[in-house]
UniProtKB/TrEMBL annotation, chains A, B, C, D:
UniProt similarity note: Belongs to the PurU family.
GO molecular function: formyltetrahydrofolate deformylase activity
Organism: Neobacillus pocheonensis
UniProt function note: Catalyzes the hydrolysis of 10-formyltetrahydrofolate (formyl-FH4) to formate and tetrahydrofolate (FH4).
CDD domains xrefs: ACT_F4HF-DF (cd04875), FMT_core_Formyl-FH4-Hydrolase_C (cd08648)
Cross-referenced HAMAP family: PurU
Alphabetized Pfam families for the sequence: ACT, Formyl_trans_N
Substrates-to-products reaction catalysed: (6R)-10-formyltetrahydrofolate + H2O = (6S)-5,6,7,8-tetrahydrofolate + formate + H(+)
EC number(s) on file: 3.5.1.10
Pathway annotation from the record: Purine metabolism; IMP biosynthesis via de novo pathway; formate from 10-formyl-5,6,7,8-tetrahydrofolate: step 1/1
Protein name in UniProt: Formyltetrahydrofolate deformylase
Length: 289, 289, 289, 289
């Protein structure tokens, strides 16, 4: 047995149509690759004809070579079993681009969790349609790109962003980015763009939701983090939470409370994405926490 | 000073247009009536030209006569100050009618809190459009009335219910009553009918909300208790809460979790109504908890 | 493929010292027994030399014979791999004895969840050191045994209880049972007695905890459900929760709030125990929810 | 009536022995000082012979002169009625000193809420027994003082801190300050030092609480913010909250979760203190949220 210190942790996510023996096959496969399984989560929508989801955390000896070998062999196995898979590791840090507008609460939270090493990620760039947050971003040593955007310039602006992103990032977080991305842009990052937005019970769709929630006297306000699809705010939900309020809260206080839920919910969702805990199936997620 | 044992607790709720000196006037008024104030909560939407809400809990000496005198004098004061007011006391227990259909979770919770004296209320009757819960209700010593209801018989059925209710009850709780009451019926009980319904982030308006919430992979399910107005499920919200769920929950499990939130939220709302903690203004509530 | 209707669900819990290949061995074993795995959860305290915990939910064809065969073969496998295991199924309902004293809130909650089929369990008996709850229990068709207990009669009383329980039950729930069971009694039901008690932040050990929590002005009160060991209230924790309170709550209101947390937490813990979701290791639990 | 724009908000906190007519007296007093009451909260421990607590939020015309006059007249009234009182206003920002050691999570949260104007406070200085956080503090334009502290140098170090604080601050926040302040130091700031510490159900008093909580398998971890008294961690509780964890959390993950609860709870407590929402009576608080 080699010394524990040399072991490094990796994570494998798998989705595929349900098929008898799939767990055995995968665990045997990992066993052959000298993986010591630490966590194993599995979920089936229907054991007869459903979809099968699996998340495995495991330690690898001689990480660099064994990770590479595993990756190669997974390509073969995936073909045979019609698997969708994703292999991650803290040793291969994900690269996260953050899109912001003017509000800094979600950005600050992400930066704090990054600096405190709670979210093990690289942040190669922050892109904004305003320049308000330039100082905050650059003060933390992160490159900041100001790409103004209007209806007329949208296509060009997105093109410019794409050029910056290309090959440099693994996923995007919209940390209160107040522009709607085009289907063309979104299609380049399937299940790789995370958004946060306020949520209420009941929903207040449309303009001024906080004022309307205030006028209705809601007792809870919430936030939802989700992957971005072409249906605005309707993509697969990653995380949600709420905060209790009362009649003494002004509409402004509701927004403040909303900010706190938003930054907490977004940070959790990003953290789970980074740790390869989220699988997407159709319009829903399986989150193995 | 008389012995503490003879004191009895009463509660006064007041709403009125904001006017300088209103707090002094009311507290002086209570002082003259020998009320010892225990809790005092007040809220103003706008101190210049808003609405003013007040809840006072106080102990009265020689309760029977002083309560009556207070009630009489409040009529006079209300006219002078354009007050809406409501005077309550545990000594004058509210009478609650419960409307149910087939589901027993909300009904059972209310009966349990009534029997355990947590909600100090009388239950003169339970009315149902089905007979399924007759045994449960009567087994607890509460009169049960089966009034079938269909589109055709609705008017007659409501008339029958009104006759049973008339003079016998102070408010109504719809404890999963699966019929829509007519505007005519509702108008007879303004802010005196409490309903409970499921709530989600986002909302799933229409049929099969639990199945759709399941398909969307929501992470929280909730419930809202509100006063009934003619806008279905859109009346002033009294209380809301949520429960966390995960991908392992089936659509059926979601319903089970929903039942637990519903009974908890409804029982809280009823409890606050009974203890005169809820003021309604327009389409929102002020709840002094 | 046989029709889905004939499938029946079973659950296997396994604990053992960590050993490479154990997941493969178990899943292969289940595959050979024609089990369709639905959920699979696994946890390792340390992949090199730790303990290994596994929970598998699976569907079996021709349930009666295959369940029996599986059980037999597990005995053999357990010997080879030094496994602790437990095999359960809704088809083999667990039998739960409830011990109560005078408070009915936990008992009522358990009875309600049993009657509403949320907790699929049989309740062969309720045992109490008082007769207060006899009517409630028998009114629900459950046998009630009154076994008075004092310091002097404790040994006899426990003996009497043991005779009633012997062979008739699978686990015991202390639903606010205000007697301390002897080590001798407890030793007969290792990790098979569930208790509920109040919990605070900070703890108020000793007499009158609610009064002391009130005097300290705590903002949360909680409850803990745990397996009973000889260390009073110190056994492995199954579930905990809290409820927010404020300065308007009297010491009596704190107790009321405490009752609500207690019944919710106990019911969850019992539900997880019944569904074979709880593994015990030393003085802690692994709960696969 | 003067224009609304000129109004400025103030808050009055009052504690005194219960006495009939006190509410009338105070509201009449405010009426005479042209105060428009916006919120009024009152609480009595016992209307016959208890303590009386009151919080009033009101708008003042011609703020500067009327606030001063009010303050003067309150001194007189306080003598007559044996009142403890406190008068605050956003116009008279409180000055907060922060004490830290090496952990930055609570400090960062306070700085963020200060910069985002959520907590309307001045921060004249941060004092630390280490120099690790110097850059973070100064980078935000706040003076940083490094005062090393050991058992031997404690008296001198505290003296040095006192000199820095004297006349420059209104209250102190211990944002994970890992030194125990002397009774002498504490006595200079009664109910003016706020501390945060982890809390568990049950408590794990002594060393390594997170490891012990992990070993016990707790399901919730919490935090308590309280005023500092000579009884270590036993002062009046301002706010508490918890976060749910599960068996997959390592002892290290528990600490991370603990940090999140700590910063949330501390920030709420500080916010309430700044907004004059907290009254202390003996060893408990009344928080009018």
């Amino acid at each position: 047995m080699i010394s524990k210190g040399k072991l490094k942790r990796a994570k494998l996510l798998i989705s595929c149509p349900e098929k008898p023996g799939i767990i055995s096959s995968v665990t045997n496969f990992l066993l052959e690759h000298k993986a010591n399984i630490v966590h194993f989560d599995q979920h089936t929508t229907d054991p007869q004809a459903g979809m099968f989801f699996m998340r495995i955390e495991f330690d690898l000896e001689e990480f660099d070579s064994s990770f590479e070998k595993l990756e190669q062999d997974l390509h073969v196995m995936a073909r045979d079993y019609a698997l969708d898979w994703q292999l991650g590791s803290k040793e291969k840090r994900k690269r996260m681009a953050i899109f912001v507008s003017k509000a800094d609460h979600c950005l600050s939270e992400l930066i704090w969790r990054w600096k405190s090493k709670e979210i093990p990620v690289d942040i190669p760039m922050v892109i904004s349609n305003h320049s308000d947050l330039k100082e905050l971003v650059e003060g933390n040593g992160i490159p900041f790109y100001h790409i103004p955007m209007s209806k007329e310039t949208k296509e060009d602006a997105e093109q410019k962003a794409l050029e910056l992103l290309k090959g440099n990032i693994d996923f995007i977080v919209l940390a209160r980015y107040m522009q709607i991305l085009s289907p063309k842009f979104i299609s380049k990052f399937p299940n790789q763009i995370i958004n946060i937005h306020h949520s209420f019970l009941p929903a207040f769709v449309g303009a001024n939701p906080y004022v309307r929630a205030f006028n209705r006297g809601v007792k809870l306000i919430g936030a939802t983090a989700h992957y971005v699809t072409n249906d605005l705010d309707e993509g697969p939900i990653i995380e949600q939470d709420v905060q209790r309020i009362n009649h003494r809260y002004t509409a402004e206080d509701l927004k403040t409370a909303g900010r706190h839920v938003e930054r907490r919910v977004l940070a959790e969702a990003v953290s789970w994405h980074v740790e390869d805990k989220v699988l997407v199936h159709g319009n829903k997620t399986i989150v193995f926490t």
